[in-house]
Amino acid sequence: MPRNGHINLRATLECGQVFHWRERADGAWEGLIGDQFAVVREEERRLLVLEGREAVVAPYLALDHDLDAIYAGFPEDETMLAALEFCRGLRMIRQPAWECLATFITSSMKQVAHIRQMSTALRARFGRAVRGTDLRAYPTAEALAAATEDDLRACGLGYRAKNLRSTAQRVASGQADLGKMSALEDAELREALCEFPGVGRKVANCAMLFGFGRLSAFPVDTWISRVMKRHYWRGRKKPTPLALEENLASRFGPHAGYAQQYLFHHARMTQGKGRR
DNA sequence: CGCCAGGGTCTCG
DNA sequence: CGAGACCATGGC
After folding, report:
1. Is the CB of A112 under 7 A from strand B?
2. Rg of the Cα trace of chain A?
3. Burial class (CB in 10 A: 0-12, 13-18, 19+), A35
4. Model confidence, pTM
5. Which secondary structure element, helix H or strand E, spans residue A40, and what is its range?
6. Has residue A274 got a pLDDT over 90?
7. Exposure pattern of A216-230 as b/e (b: 16+ CB <10 Å)?
8. What whole-number distance in Å separates Cα of residue A194 and Cα of residue A184?
9. Which letter does DSSP use for residue A136 in this model?
10. Which of A160, A173, A168 is nearest to A109 (CA)?
11. Which of A6, A35, A219, A239 has the most beta carbons within 10 angstroms of its beta carbon?
C-alpha cells in the first residue's frame, strides 16, 4: 500500500458513487464487490479488511490512487480547498462497468436516497443471492433484459424502466460489448455510451468516471451546475451544462473527476436543506 | 401542497 | 444552436 494510502470510508461509500454499502452497528461497513461479500473498517484513516480478499478490496477502493499527487493538481481557490478539507480521503471506486452504467441510467431526476431504494429493489428482485449475507448482487444485464417493463416499474423506476431494459438487452445480446468499449479513447467511449437509451452526456460521464476509470470525466448535474455557476463561471450569459463541462472542467486537470466528486459531495452535505 | 431530485429526448423557434 | 415540455416517483 502506498505511503499515502489513507481513506475516508464514509465519504467514499456515501458520496453517491455506490448505493449498496451500509454501516453496521460496530462501525464497520459491509457491501458487495461484484458478487463478493466484503466487510471493511477504517482505523486511523487506514483500511482494515475484516472479510473478503485484500486483492479484491484494494483495487475496488482504489487504494493505489496517489491522493497527494491528485490533490496537488487541484486549483487552490477557496471553494476547492473547502471541499478538499471536507472530503479528504474520499477515493473514486472502481465499479463493475455494467453495474455502474445501469445504476446511473436509473438516476435521472432522482435523489441519492431514491437511487439507493431502486438499486436495493432491483437487487432484491433480480440479483443473485450471495453466501454469508442478505445483500444481493446487482442484476446482470441478462436478468434485466429478461424482466418486463412492469417488473422494473415495480421497483420504482418509472419512465426509466424502458431505458434500463433496452440497454440491458443490447448488452445481454452482445450487440454492445462493455469490455471492448473499455479500450476506446475517452471521446469515443463517451460517444458509444451515449448510444444507449437513457444515456446522455451526464450519465455517460458518470459511467466513465466510476465504471471505466476515466478520472478526467466531469459529470455536470444540478449540484455541480450550481457550484460552477456560483464560483467558477465568469461569462455573462447563462451557461449550458456542456459549456460548464468543457470550459471549466479542464482547469481541474487530468483528475478533474476527483475534483468534481469532492465539490459535489461537499455541496450536497453542507447545503443539504438550504436552497440555492 | 408545490417544489426538486447526480437528466434524456423531442419539438419548436 | 437554445429554450421548453414531458416523462414517474418520493421526500420534504
Report:
1. yes
2. 18
3. middle
4. 0.97
5. strand A36-43
6. no
7. bbbbbbebbbebbee
8. 14
9. B
10. A160
11. A219
* pLDDT (tens digit per residue) in A161-216: 999 999 999 999 999 999 999 999 999 999 999 999 999 999 999 999 999 999 99
Strand B nucleotides within 7 Å of a protein CB: 4-9
DSSP summary character for residue A23 = E
**Phi and psi at residue A199, to the nearest 5°:** -115, 115
Residue A13's Cβ-count burial label (10 Å; 0-12, 13-18, 19+) is: buried
Give the 3-state secondary structure of residue A275. Answer: coil
Residue A237 grid cell: 450569459
Contact (CB, 8 A) for A36 and A29: no
Nine-digit cell string for A111? 435523489
Residue A34: CB less than 7 A from any atom in strand B: no
3-state secondary structure of A215: coil
Residue A149, phi then psi, degrees to nearest 5: -60, -35
CB of A204 within 7 Å of some strand B atom: yes
Q: Which residue has the cell 481541474?
A: A252
